Amino acid sequence: MLIDSPHWISIIILLPILGAVASFLWRQHIVKIALTTATGTVISVGILSWQVISNGVQCYELGAWNAPLGIELYVDGLSVLMLLVTAVVGFAISIYASAYFEGNKSKHFWPLWLFLWSGLNALFVSSDIFNLFVTLEIIGLSAVALVALSGGAKAITAAMRYLLVSLLGSMLYLMGVALLYHSYGTVDMVLLSLRTEMNPAMWLIMGLMTVGLLLKTALFPLHFWLPAAHSSAPVPVSALLSALVVKASFYILWRLWIVVFPLDNDAQVGLGFILGVLGSLAIVWGGVKALQQTRLKLLIAYSTVMQIGYLFLAFPLASIMGWKAALYFILAHAIAKTAMFMVAGNILIHKGHDRIADLYSTVQHLPLTIVAFSLSGISLMGLPPSGGFVAKWLLLEAAIVSGQWWWGIVLLVGGLLTGAYVFKVLGYAFIQENSTNEPRPIGISKRMEWTALSMALFAIVLGFIAPFVLGIMDIGSPFTKGSL
Amino acid sequence: MTPAFLYALVGIVLFSIGLYGLILYKHLLRKILAINILGSGVFLVMVALAARTGDAVPDAVPHAMVITGIVVAVSATALALALMLRVDAETGQAVLPEDREE
Amino acid sequence: MEEISILLLFDVLVGLTLVWLAWQTLSSLDLFRAIVLFIAFGLLMALAWVRLNAPDVALAEATIGAGLTGALFLSALAQLSASTKRKDEENKIENS
Amino acid sequence: MNFDNWVPLLIVIIPLFIAVIIFALAEDKIKTRSTLNIGASVLSLGLVGIMLWGVSKGFHYETRFSFLPGLDFVLRADSLSMLFVTLSSALWLLTTVYAIGYLEGSPHRSRFFGFFSLCVAATLGVALAGNLITFLLFYELLTLAAYPLIVHRGTQKVRRSGRIYLMYTLTGGALLLLGTVLLYSITGTLEFVASGFLSTLDSSTHSLLILVFVLLVSGLGVKAAIVPLHGWLPQSMAAPAPVSALLHAVAVVKAGAFGIVRVIYDVFGIEFSVTLGLTLPLAIIAAITIIYASTRALFQDGLKARLAYSTVSQVSYIILGVAIAGPIAAVGGVVHLVHQGVTKITLFFCAGNLAETLGIHNISEMHGVGRRMPWTMTAFTIGALGMIGIPPLAGFITKWYIGLGALEAGHGWVLIVLVGSSLLNAAYFLPILYVAWFTEPKGDWPAEKKLGKYETSLLLLVPPLITALFVILLGLFASLSFSALAWSEFIISKEFLL
Amino acid sequence: MRKIKLKILEKKPSLFTRLTLGILMFLLAASLAYAVWSLPTQALGLSAEVAKNVEMSGVSNPVTAVLLNYRSYDTLLELGVLLLALFGVWSLGGVSANKSSFVNPILDFLSRFLVPVFILFSGYLLWVGGFAPGGAFQAGAVLAAAGVLLFLNDWQLERKYSGFSLRFVLVLGLVLFVAIGFGFVFLDRVFLEYPPQLAGGLILLIEAAATLSIGISLAALFLGRDPSVKSDSKIDTGVHK
Fold first, then answer.
1. Are chains B and D touching, using the cut-off of 8 Å on CB pairs and a minimum of 3 such pairs?
2. Confidence of residue D231 (pLDDT cuts 50, 70, 90)
3. Residue A442: which pLDDT band, with cuts at 50, 70 and 90?
């Protein structure tokens, strides 16, 4: 019947595209079209995930041409979770954006965002590295256009810098694809994993593709473009960027690192050490910079730079537990960061500014928003009972079991730094300024506060459903080399 | 030194020149030019190496990829130029803030 | 034997001019000159594609790479110089 | 999942649920908020009573569901947890009554009582935790829930002390987490087992286990205010009285001490800890804390600051008793959990009364206050004497058992510490009593308020009297079967293989 | 076109940075050259598979076969990228090109002569794509060249057509591609799988729609702003004919 038809993989890519086209055509009821598309996409992702969870990995040959010639789509546990987190975050952002944008801006927001969503879905299911290049381009261009949407000198220059960085990253990646294709005759990941072997050309390919993708993931030395872009973009867009777009290029690097690159275990540990060190620098640097920020959105943007550092701690561990911890970090961070940006958005609209020092007595006017901030803060800090805690626990355990305990120390230092800046903001929110002279607060639509709170609550619930989520991660054992 | 490797070498040199120009020059129009040259370099390497099929018809898959690449490049250039004009309109200079010399 | 070497010579020539054009495009002071050089570079690339017997790509490069991208650049340059000229006038009015 | 499995979860969920409702309540609905609060505490007290009766009859109450692969979220009612749960829920009821009276007319009470019941839920969770990870979960929840209460007033000073509190407790939490993960990676299980589950491990892991012990104890030591880590406690005295009463006398501080008792008994096991040579250094640190904190208390003019330092020293009695590793001293240590809680809360209640009704914050302003507020001062006196250890009050029992146990376990020097600290206690409590009772009041009080026809509103007066009564009863009827002492002996009998 | 003399004297970056960057680029180029050099001199890549399946693909030109049958999913996303760039450019609002009131007679004559030729040539390219070099993208680009010529002559799309109908044509290529690709799923085939005997015709149909959309999109990209939006932006000073 319809439910167990194998075509849901293509539907989750085509539905947002058609939604984008429809919202571009019929501008007068754009929000209705967009929200129905968003719901449809979430449902189809749900059905696909249910199919994969119940009867395992799905492989889908487009145009019925098998691997070397045609393009294959492949969905395993890792892709399902990335799709699910994109669906959840995407749906929440769609609801938030429907109240956030009005008139002219929403006319441009929805087509771009729905295209971005379809690019993300296409990226997470594809197993063809050139196809990944095209999806990366879709995500890059739409993200840049979305950042530029908020107008103003800061946003436009940030979008320009982001576009240049994104194009450079894509070109480096494409050079890697070209060399890979011409060395091994195929662009399909599964076939590549069988054919690649270590030779000087391979070292260069790995270098190029890793640097290209690190540029787009904004790992520490290459993160210069992220704070400006994520903080000057409109709030729903910065939530998208921090939660999903940055993770998309990380996902590709991850797949390449595990499946395509011919790295045996101690090569993974050796090379991974460099990424681990960069990750630790990102954590310390991001944390310290976040502490110095006076504006909330910039603080949250630097916290993204830090959280990305956590993901790269899993590379030197090269153990399945380490990879699962990194994936859990992605899920927890995506949801908590979305909630936090929504909070920043509410405060920005309510008070007209997001200066942290003047956040006094927001507790009275926006109680739900402050609760959302503290819950998502708990998840970012990695305090129980949140998703962040489970991720932190798994990574600590993986670090100790693999004998590299120093990554665990970095993790704990990161947790303390996060605690410092989360409570710095909370501290200001509790000040008892005589709130009588507070200008009559502009009413934020309840929808925006409730979406922020529900995402924050979901970040906490993520701490309780760990066995279920970790079970999904095992489908198709994505973290072992020969499996894909 | 078959033409394939010669053009591949040219492609690599173009790639380096493009990267050099992108990093070094300040004006945004020049940076976008550099990105296009970078792209042409990669495409040249892609198609040059596809011509290593001796006297048989060269491999068509890289050709298709390069055509796709060219269209992506033109779309990205169009967006980059539009953004550059907005940067110029907003800040008075077609240069990124960190490159402005006051 | 020499027939191959002539073609080889031709390829080397095309390659060198390509590199020279690219270098000149980026390092020339005047933007208009850079764009014109870039268009020439695009056409020469089309020639390179023909030499690598990739006619489809040659056509695409000629029409999109050289033609359309060149047009985009020129239009952008026109608007850029128009806005700088307008700003100069405004400055002149202010300080005059 | 019959009733036995639900009770522990229910006890923790009730205050959690109430917290959410109170958060949503509007500020002016005082009546519903108070009834909700008191109703919840009475209900949970009832449940605790049922469980108390059940545990003594040998029933087995446990809630378990899987939380992480290989790790479960476990709430279990064993003898040790019952002691702490009964103490917390009883004092929770009294403090709620007191807080309703104390915060009459002050702003943001919905927020206060919301976080207040969240704290209680966390404390009950800490008490009932069946394994180290559930303990860690509620331990961190307690850190978070206590912060908003400390910064409730929102003034600059209070926020500074909140920051200090966070610095200490978050670092402590990180150390505890590291220790727990290290332990889990060695043993593979974190379940609390009557006499510890580490003794069976081979000797190669001993050095790691010592590191684990140090990490766990330092993580818990922050909350138990052991000397080097106690800095935050006196700072956070700026919080409102009910906060310092419940949190710093019962919930937060006891969670640390209770945690150390759990680690020594149910993780390492007392014999194994002795063989590892861990208990002696711990006992020495506890002794140093007692002496140091008592001397610092001498020089504090602020009443609540002095009480804070006395809390720091009293909590270390528990650790001292447990660290001596003799069964009798252990009974003394465990029972002191209850005695110290009850005595200290009385003192804090009285300090709160003085501050609320007469605006007295320092001891120098307490001249002749006995005449103005006789009932409060009698409760204060009972509490103070109980703290010093005058028979037949509760404090004496503890010191007697710890002294006896120390002698029996061959640690003579502990006796000197006990005597010394009792003298110091006397040195900083008796002057207060003298000033209050035997001197003339100097003119009018700093900020006198007329609250009801008695010396102060009943809501503020009754709780300290009840707790003072408890101090006496716990001392007099210690030998009865259902008294705290008997219950502690019941706990220790399981720990020591008598 | 007035002589645009735009000499932005770029402050030359210091010799040191240029030198170090140059050396770095040289090293990169050298390692790339070595990597390419170490590749086998003879490599058939996928040309064998392409040749084997060409007659199954409905077209004889291998590149078009790859583009529109074997890897048609890439081309689909490709059209998406083009449309996305257009959305981006339009969302930026764009500074409207100021129309010079003076029409250059030579350009006017040339465009009257060239535009029909371009359109004819674009049709030919589209048709020839099946069995010789050509195809949707090249044809679309030629169509766009015609559009560029028209815009240079201050040609203006009537307000009536610059609204929904323009947007419909822009998205036509992508929508038709998706429709045909997904249509056969209901005849129990996989997405983007064409029945072999119909493949040729279907590919031509898709290419036709794609050419139209690509041509109009590239021309719109040249224009730089949404024609349906009244150019109320204050910067616009051009005089409209």
1. no
2. confident
3. low
> What was the ipTM of the complex prediction?
0.88
The reported pTM is: 0.90
**Contact, D158 vs A404, CB < 8 A?**
no
Q: Give the 3-state secondary structure of residue D65.
A: strand
Contact D331, D270 (CB under 8 A): no
The answer to whether residue A435 scores a pLDDT higher than 60 is no
Nearest-angstrom CA–CA distance, A454 and A469: 19
**CB pairs below 8 Å between A and B: how many?**
75
Contacts of D204 (CB under 8 A, 6+ apart): none
Find chain E residues with C-beta within 8 A of B56's C-beta. Answer: 44, 47
The model's pLDDT over D468-495, given as tens digits with 9 standing for 90+, comes to 888 888 888 777 766 777 777 777 777 7
- Residues in chain D, overall count: 498
Domains and CATH numbers, chain B: 3-99 (1.10.287.3510)
Closest CA in chain E for residue C75: E222
CA distances from E127 to D52, E34, E60, E215 (A): 89, 42, 12, 15
Alpha-carbon distances of A20 from A17, A24, A100, A259, D409, rounded to whole Å: 5, 6, 19, 33, 79
Question: Is the preceding omega at residue B3 within 30 degrees of 0, hence cis?
Answer: no
User: What pLDDT is stored for residue D298 in this prediction?
Assistant: 87
Helix residue spans in A402-445 (DSSP H): 406-429
CB-nearest to B45 from A137, A167, A175 is A175
C-beta of residue A201 within 8 angstroms of C-beta of residue A208: no
How many Å apart are CA A311 and CA A421, to the nearest integer? Answer: 20
Please name the member of E13, E41, E81 whose beta carbon is closest to the beta carbon of B75: E81
Confidence at residue A290, expressed as pLDDT on a 0 to 100 scale: 92
Most A CBs within 10 A among E47, E81, E194, hence the mutation to make, goes to E81
Six token digits for residue A264: 């045996």
Q: Tokens 């240069």 — which residue?
A: B95
Helix, strand or coil, per DSSP, at residue A124: helix
Which residue in this structure is represented by tokens 């804090």? D348
Q: Which residues on adjacent β-strands are paired with residue D63?
A: D75
pLDDT higher than threshold 80 for residue D56: no
Q: Do B74 and C45 touch (CB under 8 A)?
A: no
Residue A68, C-beta contacts closer than 8 angstroms, at least 6 positions apart:
A185, A186, A188, A191, E46, E49
d(CA E24, CA E126): 45
Which of B47, B81, B92 comes nearest C49 by C-beta? Answer: B47
Is the pLDDT higher at C65 or at A85? Answer: A85
Q: Decide if C41 and B66 are in contact by the 8 Å CB cutoff.
A: no
DSSP strand E in D323-479: where? none
Query: Which stretches of chain C are assigned E, i.e. beta strand?
Result: none
b (16+ CB within 10 A) / e for E75-100: bbbbbbbbbbbbbbbbbbbbbbbbbe
pLDDT in tens, D348-386: 888 888 888 888 888 888 888 888 888 888 888 888 888
Backbone angles phi, psi at A354, to 5 degrees: -125, 35
Structural domain of residue C29, as residue ranges? Answer: 2-95
